[in-house]
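User: Show me sequence and structure for the first protein, then do the same for the second.

Assistant: Starting with the first protein.
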Amino acid sequence: MYDFDTPAPRAGSGALKWDLRGTSFGNPEALPFWVADSDYMSPPEIGRAIREAADRCVFGYNLVTDSWRRAVAGWIKNRHDWEIDPAWIVPSTGVVWELDQIVRCFTDLGDKVLIQTPVYDPFAAVVKSSGRTLVENRLIRDGGLHYSMDFSDLERDLASGVKLMVLCSPHNPVGRVWTETEIRRVAELCEKHGALLVSDEIHWDIIMPGHRHFTAGRAGTAENVIVLSAPSKTFNVAGLKCSYAVIPSPALRRKLECWMEARHMDSGNNMGLIACEVAYTRCAKWADEQNEYLAQNAALVREYFGERLPQMGIAPLQGTYLMWLDISFTGAGSEQVCAMMNRAGAVLNDGARYGDDGFVRLNIACPRAQLLQGLPRVEEGIRRAGEKD
């Protein structure tokens, strides 16, 4: 059994999530539940491998090895039932960074790029900063906060001349794990209307019991789909800067590789490649146990607020470790609610940044004691925001 109860010593270490509490949020003692990384330690196997590499004291230029490619391909086959050629993998230093390069490589200035809101806010930032035209296709939700796609609306948007669609799967922040039927329908519509489907699947290993991730790589044609992922969320190694695109199409793959080579973009961090290979070949049990732990944390959150704030809706968590809380009953905007939480001692993300002002996002990837300490602070902030003058 791995240990997820012992907190990692992150405060004062330069950790963005912890060390911005005072300067950005005005409360250096607040517990952070915002940035999507975890507050327990990464698998010990990764730490040992990096220490061994560091002890060799060789930090020169590196190649992307065949063993790394085989490790990534093996993980994808074993975890996601998708058999790929290791040559399809294009490494990079981060999913958002690679998405930015893909948008610039495969679309022109002014072209339409579609995202499904509410969604991870860098998607919109990438589209806007690249000079492309943002198309927002809204997800729909029922009274129980179960989100789904409006396929009629999606087809209308794609038919308007969209060149590229960015899919978030599993979805951040609403927690959906899209079904095989849904993913296949998205791929069919993109192919029908000539849009390249780029699927951000960085959370694809973090799946709650009773759900199964279906990768877009198994749905579309080779000419139609690019899948992005990384070990960063699963194993908490985002700071090591290692991600990858899986591109079955030789033409698409070569175009992106040429684009990156022309801009002198290399494979990134030696230690990130080592961490990725070790994670994918030695740490499957850790990933499984983490999912079990996160499911228990999610149940705790539901039980706590079910008793203390039953009027607050919580979207069903199917995947990721990010819970989507409906605070619209307070009558306050999400930025105001988050400000009240900061004062009470908890930092969450406000939903407005993702495209829905009535929500906040809670990261539950932390030791249970930290979550138990933080939930009353979250509750206090919500109650304060809902108080009338």
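Switching to the second protein now.
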Amino acid sequence: MPTIRQQDFIQSIADALQFISYYHPADFIRSLTRAYELEQSPAARDAMAQILVNSRMCAEGHRPICQDTGIVNVFLEVGMNVRWDATLSLEDMVNEGVRRAYNDADNPLRASIVSDPLGGRKNTRDNTPAVIHVSLVPGDRVEVDVAAKGGGSENKSKFVMLNPSDSLVDWVMKTVPTMGAGWCPPGMLGIGVGGTAEKAMLMAKAVLMEPIDMPELIARGPASRLEELRIELYEKVNALGIGAQGLGGLTTVLDVKIRDYPTHAASLPVAMIPNCAATRHAHFVLDGSGPATLARPALSDWPSLDYGTAGGRRVDLDQVTPEMVASWKPGEVVLLSGRLLTGRDAAHKRMADMLARGEPLPVDFRGRFIYYVGPVDPVRDEAVGPAGPTTATRMDAFTEIMLAKTGLLGMIGKAERGPVAIEAIRKHRAVYLIAVGGAAYLVSKAVRKARVLAFEDLGMEAIYEFEVEDMPVTVAVDAEGNSVHRTGPREWQARIGKIPLVPV
């Protein structure tokens, strides 16, 4: 009867979380590389190149793939013959592993978890507690799946109670376009069908940890109704033309996973959860012989790519004018240099409240750009840690007051803007730019200096000033209110018709 020691379990959790912060699963890299090589949309191809280059940089530098290092999900299958040499509960051991991983001095991970979610929303500072699921199974070992789920993709989770006669495919095809690009495609869709509401959601999350095997499935052909559904949805979702980062292109999903369970005769619960381009998960087994060891991927798994800055319009943020901004076109690549302000949810809420009270802001935004980001803390000689964009639609409610009251000239985030924000951008002749979600370490290399200007108590949500050099962004909404997230997918959906099956 094997004995699992408390220290081995805690260390294995911590090691796995560090591992997945900087190593993509090898199957994801292979699949994304294949999609990059086949992509015909220049904007989507550029985005995938940034994601792949960022991924290799993180593997080499042991720094987070994305600044949003996620909420920790742990699935445990505990053998009923296992003995424990432990004084802590299973939940407490998991959380101690999370605490050690996120406070690692060599590679600190961003603490994103807040307690009192309906009230003070105070950051727990160590990313605990994790979300833990435990199953007791026959056997004499403990199997562990660990994932770190970013907020951008988690926020796009969907659930519906369909009638038994309703079409799953119809619901998915109606729902995916409503998810926008905030989940950072290309990624995966996990679908859970049956059971009860919570069972469907749990299956949708768990199935995302299965390996990407869509090319192999297509090559051999489906052997079951679920496999037929997977292929059908894969083809039809990609035929929507949403593309990488929602810019329009051939690949929106790399795979579709489905898991089902018996359900009530009157019910058809369906859950759908996306995984983003920063997909992070690992599997390990403990058998009493010591802490788990995860096999490092080989650098040869990554394609030989460099992301250069040739061809983009260079812009000096310290000299930019409204007239210059008015000349930028949707889909155009812009390279930013100069001083850039940052701020996201909590900072915008505080500033909006101050403006409503007639109070002066602590920062002058006139003629400036603001970057929606919550960076990872820097280590060694870094000016800032990984600093990719957060989902811009969360700032839509503040866009009109910021543009009207502060003289702000432009914003940088990820994914699309909603109609209210687009109208405010058009009205004030501003601009919205996007950085690539899933390329946080690459983006951070453009930051030469960083300092906190205001709201230091907000931690990663404070207002910083970055000094950047050739930071790559794409014009998403121009001064006329034209949005590439509307025109790009529409163009590519018309061009694709139905994505061709490409032999592996």
